[in-house]
């Protein structure tokens, strides 16, 4: 997840328990992090204070909260609690003497306030605000209001240090019944993410029903709802022929959204909503890219990254509007100058940069209005969009070496010896005729995949079948993880007994299961891929084929299994 600070730094939390410090100067970003901090357990939350000088990370599993000094890239404090912290949020203004940090309990509705420069002793305890654990919490410094939401969808307002964490006096209501803050309890939907606008006047919530709710912070009323459900995009796709995408790409995106909704719904908590510095635009990821919505005109004004085949989740906007300090130093132009129609007043200034992460991708992506370029050795510049600067993981390198070795050996293997509990079967392989099928079999054999697999199906006077790790006839994968296509060769037919063929559930559904015939079976030609022929051990195959079996399943009454498989060359 990304966090942007006003001190021109980006922080990125990874799922492999790393906190990366990046510096950004308008759209220029170093390709390597300034600092990388690793911990033993996974981060559960990260927060930054109002002026970008401090950040805090939270780890539920080891019950720790760490505070970092942004400018010095250093950890300045660490808290160890007796409870499991879940969410952290700085709740102080610039004039406050204490840099107050709110920490929620993962197992109760309690929120404790600690001094980020102090010890574990809480300076205040909010134990009656929520009945359930808090899952979202953000602070708006301008109105001095903290918004916290629990896992039942209950939204609460409370103030900062100056008002002793009581109900804020800066809002326009006294009773929640006069607001829409009970909305998520009514519709029984859980907020996934929240963002407060820079001016502190509105806040946005992305809920589990895939709607974005825009609230007026002062009144607590919903002023806008944005439908981001996949059903809406499917309807749009039917009207616009795939929302301008190729049919295959549009179908893939719809399938991905449905898969995430049913199998991996927890990833939606990483969807981030952000406002621009004017608070007039809200930016959020969608199945079609990243949308920019004008809250004043209530129109979708821009769609970013639609052509990229990525599902974006976390986003951060690096502002191009200069800070007050930069204006005094004359280091940047002002908003008034940049908006001027007179071209002489406008100078070439780096544009806003949008940083994004994507689903199941270990890279981050930068969007700007300026084309990227790199400087060559001779001083010339050339277009070079992608930077491949990440180092492969040690596990990936080991797997790649093992896979390469397996590939080499499998291509050279022309014979296999299947050691079973009933005896040995020598099989001739055909790597020159059906290379992919032989590669799959040999690689599985080298890895010991078939060891212990039973002959789960025996049909007398026809065949014996094995290769299923579940032993039920419904399991088994190829070495690539998915089914692979059939390979039919005109010289390989089921015109004789003791052929070794792939079992499947239809065309191009080969996995790991295979069978050995005991008679000619020409009706299998064009349906099952032959990749071997028994050379020795005919009696073993016949013996297995004649064992007593269960009538319905064809499973032998006494288990017969593969001990191991060795590969060799003739």
Automatic annotation (TrEMBL):
It is an enzyme of class 5 (isomerase). The keyword Phosphoprotein does not apply. Pfam families: Pro_isomerase (PF00160). Residues 423-567 form the PPIase cyclophilin-type domain. It catalyses: [protein]-peptidylproline (omega=180) = [protein]-peptidylproline (omega=0). The chain crosses the membrane at residues 9-30. Gene3D superfamilies: Cyclophilin-like (2.40.100.10), YVTN repeat-like/Quinoprotein amine dehydrogenase (2.130.10.10). GO terms for cellular component: nucleus. Its EC number is 5.2.1.8. Keywords: Isomerase, Membrane, Repeat, Rotamase, Transmembrane, Transmembrane helix, WD repeat. GO terms for molecular function: peptidyl-prolyl cis-trans isomerase activity. InterPro entries: Cyclophilin-like_dom_sf, Cyclophilin-type_PPIase_dom, Cyclophilin_A-like, WD40/YVTN_repeat-like_dom_sf, WD40_repeat_dom_sf. PANTHER family: PEPTIDYL-PROLYL CIS-TRANS ISOMERASE-RELATED, PEPTIDYLPROLYL ISOMERASE DOMAIN AND WD REPEAT-CONTAINING PROTEIN 1. This is peptidylprolyl isomerase. It comes from Meloidogyne incognita (Southern root-knot nematode worm).
